Amino acid sequence: MSPGRFAPIRPMRAGVLFLQGAAPEHIQSLNSAFQAMGIDGTASPVRKKKELEGLDCLIIPGGESTTISKLMRRFDLIDDVLSMAADGIPIMGTCAGCVLLSKEGDEQVSRTGTELLGLMDMQVDRNAYGRQKESFEVGLHVDGLSQPFPAVFIRAPLIKKVWGHCRPLAHHGKDIVMARQDNLLALSFHPELSNDTRIHQILISMTL
Ligand code: GLN
């Protein structure tokens, strides 16, 4: 009998890094996604190491990537998040979170000394869309979704290139704006700002 086969069924727990930026909306989207999927689960904010323990999945939200990385260092969360990723726990980074997941940044990332988590085989251009337009919404074709996803871009980064195990899941024009590498998902846009929980459902389904 394999260990864990009769493990008690417990509610699923999702966490959202709540250090800076767009976190509350992710909690709401995750809770709606659990409901839509008929799964007993709850989402909670994560500010301390202890709150990372036992999570089934994690979101690193949008905001300001330099600030989030500094706060992650200050609250000593970096090594724990790296171990979660290595243990195969699904992690989704949106916008600033997408920047932090990547292995390579741009000139602004180096100039600001932003510490990247370096988990995904991709290079980002941190404010690629911010320079052209502050914010816009577009119906995006996402691999695995039958209908376009209403994607909100706010001072968004773009994924300049992917290599190794990282695969693009969505493009805006020629730009890669969503990618997956095993248990990791990166999005240039903010899925929590539309009334559509399908991308949060993808994250949850990665835990199953
Ligand atoms: N481009 C911003 C940064 O990397 C992220 C913007 C956002 O998360 N809305 O700091």
Explain the overall architecture.
The chain has 6 helices and 12 strands. The chain has 208 residues and is α/β, with parallel strands linked by helices. The strands form 3 sheets. A 7-stranded mixed beta sheet has the order 2-1-3-4-12-11-10. Strands 5-6-9 form a 3-stranded mixed beta sheet. α1 (24-37) crosses α6. The relative contact order is 0.17.
Work out the count of structural domains. 1
Work out the radius of gyration: 16 Å
Series of secondary-structure elements, N-terminal to C-terminal: EHEEHHEHEHEEEEEEEH
The neighbouring-strand order within the major sheet is 2-1-3-4-12-11-10
C-alpha geometry:
globular
Question: Fraction of residues in helices?
Answer: 25-40%
Provide a count of the helices. 6
CATH architecture: 3-Layer(aba) Sandwich
How far apart, in Å, are the first and last alpha carbons? 20 Å
Identify the bound ligands: glutamine
Please state the average pLDDT score. 94
List keywords for this structure.
208 residues, binds glutamine, alpha/beta, 30% strand, seven-stranded mixed beta sheet, disordered N terminus, Rossmann fold, three-stranded mixed beta sheet
What's the short version?
With 208 residues, the chain is an alpha/beta fold. The chain has helices at residues 24-37, 65-74, 78-86, 96-101, 107-111, 198-205; strands spanning 12-17, 41-46, 57-60, 91-94, 102-104, 120-125, 135-140, 149-154, 158-162, 167-172, 175-181, 184-187. A 7-stranded mixed sheet has the order 2-1-3-4-12-11-10. Strands 5-6-9 form a 3-stranded mixed sheet.
